[in-house]
Amino acid sequence: MDLIQAVVLGIVQGLTEFLPISSTAHLRLVPTLFGWADPGAAFTASIQLGTLVAIVAYFAKDLWVALRAWLGSFRGGEAARKPEARMGWAIVVGTIPIGICGILFKDAIEGSLRSLWVIAGSLIGMGVLMLLAERFGAQRRGTGEVTVKDGVWVGLWQAIALIPGASRSGSTITGALVAGFDREAAARFSFLLSVPAILIAGVFSLAEHRKEFLGENLLPMLTANLFSFIFGYFSIAFLIRFLQRHGIRVFVLYRVVIGLVLLYLLWTGALAPMSGIAGG
């Protein structure tokens, strides 16, 4: 991978990790359209560390308060009932489902599920679920009302994001909307919940493929992470402001259009399901 490709993929990762349009899908589609080799699930996971830094930088105060309150909750009593402590516990338990599923379905996630048929279907399917969640969700709850039960519920939705095209932010925002949170609260909860999952996936990927990343791919990986951090930070700010005034229908429309175009290209044979992947 050369530096130009690394810059492009870093920008794509930063822009699409937090917008509910699936970074994994775009990191599969962009190289395919440019005729580049698929960067692979490992590289995709590793450059999420740049967007992880973006979340931590943007939500540093919220994360610190939640961490302190969570640690304080072990004392029991009133400390365990604080909203910040409940948020901490919701993040902890909400990370368990994606961790278990990531281990159980690792081979499929890095292999067959990267098929463009799967991506097209999940782009459209999750888009429909997003639309229904916004249409019928109560949207009356704020982040101060998050409970451990919400962590389990939205955590299960986060596990769906292991399917390429589903989108971590798309699936968790959908789950939060179904649970009655308003759009801004759903987005904030989604971002905070993603921190442990992104960290674990990125570190695990780096550890497993350390020889590859510490070789000729080190500079491209660092470059991609730098750009994913920069563009990720601004995409967080954009989405929160956007959802304060608008709904998520524009993202639904985008997902469905891209999904339908992809289905057409696959159906006509213009693209092969495993295009860009070695042996595909």
The chain-level structural class is: mainly alpha
Shape: globular
Instruction: Classify the beta-strand content into a percent band.
Output: under 5%
What is the strand tally? 0
Number of helices: 14
Main pleated-sheet profile: none
Number of domains: 1
Strand/helix succession: HHHHHHHHHHHHHH
Radius of gyration over all CA atoms, rounded: 18 Å
Describe the structure.
With 280 residues, this protein is an all-alpha fold. It has one domain. The protein has 14 helices and no strands. Helix 8 runs parallel beside helix 10.
Topology:
Layout: H1 3-18, H2 23-34, H3 40-46, H4 48-58, H5 60-72, H6 83-104, H7 106-110, H8 116-136, H9 148-160, H10 168-178, H11 183-208, H12 210-213, H13 218-245, H14 249-267
Give the structure's gist in a few sentences.
The protein has 280 residues and is an all-alpha fold.
For the structure shown, list the relevant keywords:
globular, 14 helices, mainly alpha, 280 residues
